[in-house]
Amino acid sequence: xxxxxxxxxxxxxxxxxxxxxxxxxxxxxxxxxxxxxxxxxxxxxxxxxxxxxxxxxxxxxxxxxxxxxxxxxxxxxxxxxxxxxxxxxxxxxxxxxxxxxxxxxxxxxxxxxxxxxxxxxxxxxxxxxxxxxxxxxxxxxxxxxxxxxxxxxxxxxxxxxxxxxxxxxxxxxxxxxxxxxxxxxxxxxxxxxxxxx
Length: 197
Prior knowledge:
The structure is a single chain. This protein is an alpha+beta fold. It has three domains: 4-63, CATH 2.40.50.140; 67-81 and 92-144, 5' to 3' exonuclease, C-terminal subdomain (DNA polymerase, domain 1), CATH 1.10.150; 150-194, Orthogonal Bundle (Helicase, Ruva Protein, domain 3). It contains nine helices and five strands, in the order βββαββαααααααα. Strands 1-2-3-5-4 form a five-stranded mixed barrel. A hairpin with a 4-residue loop joins β4 (42-52) and β5.
């Protein structure tokens, strides 16, 4: 239902952010890897929306990167892991640590997370190991890339919102930034990148 929310940070606690967008305050549960990087002012969060029909409750979960949201969505596909447990796991460890534990079939390491018992840890390994092993190589190549300034990240998110794949979006925005220089606005980067994807 929601892809992302951009707004002013109204209030923030570890694990929770309230974003004000269009006069509405959205309470968004976030992992510490996200809330630790928010400094105030404006923020753009990729979101995952859940509805608990039994309790009549809707919740938003927010992430700074596609990788974090993909990890969250992968975790909640495992029987025994709901959204709250997935966020708790992501607050307890860096996304790459979680991915590495699953890829290495480290059941003992996974059981140390609150809410993850032996059976759930084994299911995580069985169901996610092959996918996460591929993610590991993607993480290594991503870490080799230089970090992009905020305008470049916003431009990448804009391309993702338009339906372009992550890798193509990152490559196009990087090339656009090289061509336009450091002073380019997000809008200029998006326009240039659209000619390159």
